[in-house]
Amino acid sequence: MSLKQLDEVSYFKLNNEINRPVDGQIPLHKDKEALAAFFQENVEPNTMIFGSTKEKIDYLIEHDFLEEEFIRNYSIEFIDSLYTFLEEQNFEFKSFMAAYKFYSQYALKSNDGTQYLERYEDRVAFNALYFAEGNEQLALDIADEMIHQRYQPATPSFLNAGRKRRGELVSCFLLQVTDDMNSIGRSINSALQLSRIGGGVGISLNNLREGGAPIKGYEGAASGVVPVMKLFEDSFSYSNQLGQRQGAGVVYLNVFHPDIEMFLSTKKENADEKIRVKTLSLGLTVPDKFYELARKNADMYLFSPYSVEKEYGVPFSYLDITKEYDNLVANPKIRKTKIKARDLENEISKLQQESGYPYIINIDSANRQNPIDGKIIMSNLCSEILQVQQPSAINDRQEYETLGTDISCNLGSTNIPNLMNSRDFGKSVRTMTRALTYVTDASNIEVVPSIKNGNDLNHTIGLGAMGLHSYFAKNQMEYGSPESLDFTNIYFMLLNYWTLVESNNIAKERGESFHNFENSDYAKGTYFDKYVTGEFTPQFDKVKELFTGIFIPTAEDWANLRDAIKKDGMYHQNRLAVAPNGSISYINDTSASIHPITRLIEERQEKKIGKIYYPAPYLNNDTLPYYKSAYDMDMRKVIDVYATAQQHIDQGMSMTLFMRSEIPEGLYEWKDTPKQTTRDLNILRHYAFHKGVKSIYYIRTFTDDEEEIGSNSCESCVI
């Protein structure tokens, strides 16, 4: 059966039978049958066979599928031994979805698309060899983490590592625009280039003067942020990797910007076509002061970035609005307009109900918890990257007079259920840190100098996690329960500890720390105060049992680490971030990120193929009661889990809130009607803010309709 003739296969039919209960039970065995049929009918007959590892690698190099340079860092004898190790692990996909996703989206294929040139073991081997850069032991260690699916590089890294014809290894980028035409023009060019080479692009428009602001003394000349948004949207639509994927971008605006209401209007369903943005994502940077004014139902003033920068001498993004708010209101030199804070809050919630946007970045919370000298002003396309930036200054020749620092995201993820089974938790995390370090070291985005400069100076990475709900269910813990929060606390504390250890080791080896380390809370030692004075050990017997055999650092261990870092530094400015990692989690046979699952049997629409069904990992009679759908869960439990993890994560997390249009009775004590209202979202947003959560990604609203009946009926089945 050719890859291009898939009309007579049985595996789609078998997989679809999962969604048809038999005698009140979910026939999970049908997914195993679909998996076996997929290999028998698709993978095995269409995989190119080679006589040896050397023959395969030589073929891939000769036909421009594989880069030669990284392979030549190793002897063929070592590569053979690496392959022998991988074969001995007897890796098997656990679900049809996992295998289908890998072979359809990640495995190398022949130029005509009719043959597979890689198995999972090959992709793991090439990742390990590539990231280890000639270090044989590190290559073995990375391969060990990946073949047991304890570590998963982000999609761009996993997909592209070692390939001759590839995109970049990084996931996304962050740019800020300053208030002049040169910066706008250069940023549009940067967006075009970054969208071309891969990854989504986040753009801060906070500094742009509002519509009607003066230009060189002429009153009412500026057009505001919306026309610039349209320019960026057109840029992303045009620069789409030769039609392989739609360019993706998000624009951020501060809630105290005078164009905020027009900015939000661009996403409304009934917006005029002249201002509507269809494909661009929206995000808000929200200072603490907004929550205070909204809570008091007070007036709020919106301040002109032009007059703020003229008065304070810094771009609007870099002003602490919460601290300076009263001074801004009182200063007659600051142009301002007045609206009701509660009205704006309701508009935000209405738009979130309609579209899921805007993302929310609690910018003061992010900076309050930031150990790095400098200011965080924005986030990325998925709201988990929070790093300090410096603005650039560009002259009329489009040259950098001052080269600032913009951001590229180098991401990977731990698979929680599998990492908890590691023989050595610390070694696993240290190995992952090394693999990610290669990505940041190898990144060289010369086409956007501010991105390259930020990466070269700061060596940032973002190690995250997936499979938290799967782990809870597997170990019979309710999502959001005290035991689950206890586990979350210790797990992310350990990620923090071991990435700090390894960042310190790398700094010591290389004699190099990230730029401006000496002014960070790490160098001062104050970052470690809560670990040295507090107690971070499991509190519940069940959680203590889960961490049996895993090293838990004591206050003395933390004090020793603090002293080592003060002495020898840290290589990475940032280390941790939890991405949404949706697609890649299927290959890992685990739940996405650290949020709850949405359905026991998830339904995916796969382009021309149709629907594919994915049962929750570890689903059986014992785990069923612990797999409550996110849409039926009190979102304060989700916020509690994220807030618990957040105290250990130096960047952010892509926290999605899941709502039903008709909210189940008794879920929220303030409800007197089942219909979802803006008040519900307002309350939850304030709750997240008070819990210290730095960002809110999408708001997902589920509306019951005929297309959802099938999977809904599965929710009530007994296995």
TrEMBL record:
Keyword Nuclease among record annotations: no
One BP term from GO: deoxyribonucleotide biosynthetic process
Pfam family, one: Ribonuc_red_lgN
CDD domains: RNR_I (cd01679)
Reactions it catalyzes: a 2'-deoxyribonucleoside 5'-diphosphate + [thioredoxin]-disulfide + H2O = a ribonucleoside 5'-diphosphate + [thioredoxin]-dithiol
Presence of keyword Nucleotide-binding: yes
Residue intervals of the Ribonucleotide reductase large subunit domain: 558-580
Top-level class of the enzyme under EC nomenclature: oxidoreductase
Protein role: Provides the precursors necessary for DNA synthesis. Catalyzes the biosynthesis of deoxyribonucleotides from the corresponding ribonucleotides.
Protein family membership: Belongs to the ribonucleoside diphosphate reductase large chain family.
Protein name listed in UniProt: Ribonucleoside-diphosphate reductase
Encoding gene per record: nrdE
